[in-house]
Amino acid sequence: MKLKLSLFTLLAVFCISSISAQTKIIKTDAEWKKILSPAEYHILREKGTEYAFSGKYDHFYEKGTYYCAGCNTPLFTSKSKFNSGSGWPSFDSHIGNNVGFHEDNKYGMKRTELTCNTCDGHLGHIFMDGPKKTTGKRYCINSLALKFKKSQ
């Protein structure tokens, strides 16, 4: 009886985790190049960085939601956005499990890269110099990795 219960429990956990897991979007480079602009492709697929103070969302504060420019996954809300003065849109938190965290040791620095958990698109990096009154985190994001939808 214990064996049957254990197998049932494992099956139930597997089914629940499968239902709640995000469906990955996988495309070839050619497919990504068809749907993204060259600048978006450079940021999202080649892990590029736009110049500081050049992005359209750096000093943008309308109410709404920021989505991944590659796959439309909701990533950040305007409620979590703040002016960091860094030259990139900054947020102190993300939506659900939609953002992935990965160790990045390029260029002699130890950082944490942020990606979209649905399409693995590069978003930016996270730093621990954000607002102390909230999370203390600064999600430093490339504007070209985002699409904004205004709240109704």
Descriptive notes:
The protein has three helices and nine strands. It has a six-stranded antiparallel sheet. It has a three-stranded antiparallel sheet with strand order 2-1-9, with no helix packed on it. With 152 residues, the protein is an alpha+beta fold. 23% of the residues lie in helices and 26% in strands. The chain has a single domain (27-150), classed as Metal Binding Protein, Guanine Nucleotide Exchange Factor, Chain A (Beta Complex).
Please work out how many helical segments DSSP would assign: 3
Number of strands: 9
CATH topology: Metal Binding Protein, Guanine Nucleotide Exchange Factor, Chain A
Termini distance? 54 Å
- What is the C-level CATH assignment? Mainly Beta
Tally of structural domains: 1
Mean pLDDT: 89
Order of helices and strands: HHHEEEEEEEEE
Which structural class fits the helix and strand makeup? alpha+beta
Q: Helical percent range?
A: 10-25%
Catalytic activity: L-methionyl-[protein] + [thioredoxin]-disulfide + H2O = L-methionyl-(R)-S-oxide-[protein] + [thioredoxin]-dithiol
Pfam family, one: SelR
Keywords: Oxidoreductase, Signal
GO molecular function, one term: peptide-methionine (R)-S-oxide reductase activity
List the helices and strands and how they pair.
Elements: H1 2-20, H2 29-35, H3 38-46, E1 64-68, E2 74-77, E3 81-82, E4 90-91, E5 99-104, E6 111-116, E7 122-127, E8 138-141, E9 146-150
Antiparallel strand pairs: 1-2, 1-9, 3-4, 4-8, 5-6, 6-7, 7-8
